[in-house]
């Protein structure tokens, strides 16, 4: 995920409590939440429109609540802008990946991956292969967004060509990239979660494997079962040949065009920051378009801005190729800005804090405490609309309670990743859900039933909490000292 300035984040979170406004009652805290849920439900389910206006109206309602609680407009505005600042690098990455998709299609890179993928992959085991390929790339890159925006786009195209329903393919991609993002030591979220609660990075990763690996194994079994349905179906050989012939007619297909994606992975493995690394990838795609595919400079710039455009008279290929560009990401950028504004108001008004306080009243056992943490992380993804805040806020809010109960903090760092990191792509207006929709073209509500890993991870965390499996405790003396 996007890089985050931890020192800035720390100052921002500390600033939430430096206010003269009153803490809301639970009834007042629920007003903007209930309004948002109702507004989104009516807009998306009844009128089938995007979430932008409901979020804007929800932000207005939250602002009115904050003003009634005694917060000044300048405080509210500053919190909105501070929260938006947390998402700025995500927005930059989103726009750069738009240019990558456009340039990699224009440069023949994505068509080459699809062409060879149709030769290698079979419908019967495609979903398993898609998940595992995305796992490997995301672990190497340490970034779910990078993996989804590069190899994920190609995998989606291959699945489309093989006749696999796109929601299933997108679900397998999401499972793979978030497995890699969650356990890679290069991932910002994997570093952020233990940093918030004071756990060593590799202790955190090792502890996460206990929940993440079983969830992945179950997911792969489910993808295998789904694949059996397509083992004798999928697209016919004639359909696959038609796609390959059309691609070969439009582009120069060559194994050498696989070099740019490999270079991007190598750069990210060697810790080249995501923004310059992805920018280089976009430039490589543009150079391939001009010097290998013979595109004009003007057409290449147009592909970077507006996406690649072509008419092949083969509808399935047109759907595969007419994608990308900065312009295709602008609706998602607007959604992120609105969502983060809403989240900033809720944080300033201490609405999430009030809800957490109520949840703790019912969290009597270790299982119920972990369940409350999972619920808070998921709620933060829904309400605060950002993956980082779904990790940071619950991590800070529950840290003392875990210590009081003698629970090792790595249980908390694992749980906030199981629930915060993993459920973020399931929310269409969350930065992650919005990104995946813009990149893969499949709505979060459509791929969610097939994103098995992100669905299972929080459930495994809760199961462990109630059964005591792989729950580690502080030494008695240390627990007593820290609790006091």
Structure summary:
With about 475 residues, the chain is mainly α. It is about 75% helix and about 0% strand.
* Fraction in helix: over 70%
| Number of helical elements | 25
What's the average pLDDT? 84
Strand content: under 5%
Overall morphology: globular
Strands, count? 0
The major β-sheet equals:
none
Q: What structural category do the secondary elements indicate? A: mainly alpha
Element pattern in H and E = HHHHHHHHHHHHHHHHHHHHHHHHH
Radius of gyration, rounded?
23 Å
Low-confidence stretches: 1-8
Q: Terminal Cα separation, in Å?
A: 37 Å
Structure description:
The chain contains 25 helices and no strands. With 484 residues, the chain is an all-alpha fold. It is globular and about 65 Å long. It starts with 5 loop residues before the first helix and ends with a helix.
Short key terms for the protein model shown above:
single chain, 484 residues, mainly alpha, globular, disordered N terminus
């Amino acid at each position: 995920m996007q890089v985050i300035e931890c020192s800035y984040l720390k100052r921002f979170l500390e600033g939430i409590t430096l206010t003269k406004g009153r803490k809301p009652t639970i009834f007042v805290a629920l007003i903007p939440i209930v309004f948002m849920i109702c507004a989104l439900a009516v807009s998306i389910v009844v009128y089938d429109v995007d979430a932008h206006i409901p979020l804007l109206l929800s932000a207005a309602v939250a602002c009115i609540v904050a003003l009634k609680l005694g917060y000044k407009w300048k405080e509210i505005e500053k919190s909105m802008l501070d929260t938006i600042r947390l998402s700025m690098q995500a927005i930059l990455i989103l726009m750069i990946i738009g240019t990558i998709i456009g340039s990699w299609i224009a440069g023949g890179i994505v068509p080459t991956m699809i062409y060879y993928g149709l030769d290698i992959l079979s419908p019967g085991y495609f979903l398993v292969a898609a998940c595992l390929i995305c796992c490997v790339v995301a672990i190497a890159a340490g970034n779910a967004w990078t993996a989804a925006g590069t190899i994920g786009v190609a995998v989606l195209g291959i699945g489309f060509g093989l006749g696999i329903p796109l929601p299933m393919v997108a679900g397998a991609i999401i499972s793979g990239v978030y497995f890699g993002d969650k356990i890679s030591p290069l991932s910002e979220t994997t570093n952020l979660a233990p940093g918030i609660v004071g756990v060593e990075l590799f202790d955190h990763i090792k502890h996460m494997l206990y929940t993440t690996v079983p969830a992945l194994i179950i997911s792969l079994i489910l993808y295998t079962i789904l694949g059996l349905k397509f083992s004798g179906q999928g697209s016919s050989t004639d359909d696959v040949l038609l796609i390959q012939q059309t691609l070969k007619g439009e582009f120069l297909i060559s194994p050498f065009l696989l070099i740019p994606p490999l270079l991007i992975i190598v750069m990210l493995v060697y810790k080249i920051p995501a923004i310059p690394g992805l920018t280089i990838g976009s430039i490589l795609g543009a150079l391939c378009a001009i010097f290998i595919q013979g595109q004009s400079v003007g057409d290449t710039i147009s592909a970077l801005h507006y996406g690649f455009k072509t008419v092949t008279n083969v509808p399935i290929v047109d759907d595969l190729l007419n994608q990308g560009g900065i312009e295709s990401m602008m609706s998602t950028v607007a959604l992120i800005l609105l969502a983060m504004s809403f989240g900033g108001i809720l944080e300033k008004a201490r609405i999430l804090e009030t809800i957490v306080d109520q949840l703790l009243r019912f969290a009597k056992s270790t299982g119920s405490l972990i369940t409350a943490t999972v619920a808070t992380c998921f709620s933060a993804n829904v309400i605060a609309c950002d993956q980082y805040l779904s990790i940071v806020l619950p991590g800070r809010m529950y840290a003392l309670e875990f210590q009081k109960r003698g629970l090792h903090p790595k249980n908390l760092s694992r749980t906030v990743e199981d629930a915060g990191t993993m459920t973020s792509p399931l929310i269409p207006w969350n930065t992650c859900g919005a990104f995946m929709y813009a990149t893969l073209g499949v709505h979060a509500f459509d791929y969610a039933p097939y994103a098995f890993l992100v669905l299972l991870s929080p459930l495994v965390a809760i199961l462990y909490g109630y059964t005591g499996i792989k729950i580690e405790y502080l030494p008695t003396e240390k627990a007593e000292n820290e609790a006091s």
